[in-house]
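Dock manganese (II) ion; give full complex structure.
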Amino acid sequence: MAQSGRVVSRAVVRRNYAILPPEGVATSVLPEWRDTLARVLTAPAMGAKFVEYLLEIAPGGGTQQSLREDVQMFLFVLDGQAELDLNGKSHRLGPGGFAYGRPGTRFTLRASSPLRLLWLKKVYVPFGTGRPADLVGDEAKVPGETYMGIDGLLLKTLLPADLAFDMAMNIFTFPPGYSLPMIETHVMEHGLYFLQGQGLYYLGETWSDVKAGDFIWMGPYVPQSFYATSTTPSRYLYYKDVNRDVEL
Ligand code: UGY
Ligand code: MN
């Protein structure tokens, strides 16, 4: 790579939030994954209670592994095609395809073309006797619901509204010029991947430019909002911990 003198970056890491543009996140080797470049987007080392990765997998690469008995996972295909065996059932996933694996999941994933995917793992917090079941879907087939009565602002909830689940994975679509109707402040955290478009994200007490490919971690109680500035719709996929009381 050519020398470039003093370099700059939009990356920001604060106590309770972070913005990571993709270009600066160094790759890690995950020993369970073959022919895979992993970027750890957030982790307990940052303050998050979950881990989220961006994985780039060469054709033929992938993994065969079992999660710890108390760890669940979610994966979402950004580009390419994957063959997935999830607890003994086979699936094919293309762009927009997603899968939820219950705690202790055994799975095999193989890239059938150059593959980019988001992978998230979180310790499952049980409630009562209900337990979440595996789920495989395609975001294109999930209908969007109008958010807070604002026509055109659409929210897709990829996981069921079922108390057995302790997490949500949602996709927001904002037409140009639309915004979240308030500055939210809440105990839940987010891991947000910007799928499309660009805009201004309010975090803490400042507005920052964000665009497709960026990742944002929002810890508990970080004031947050979004304003879409691109001429095409802006879309982001985000994680949220839900359905559980606060642990004391
Ligand atoms: O569900 C949420 O908390 C969502 N409205 N937050 C966000 O988009 N930053
Ligand atoms: Mn929020």
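Observed: The chain has a mean pLDDT of 97.
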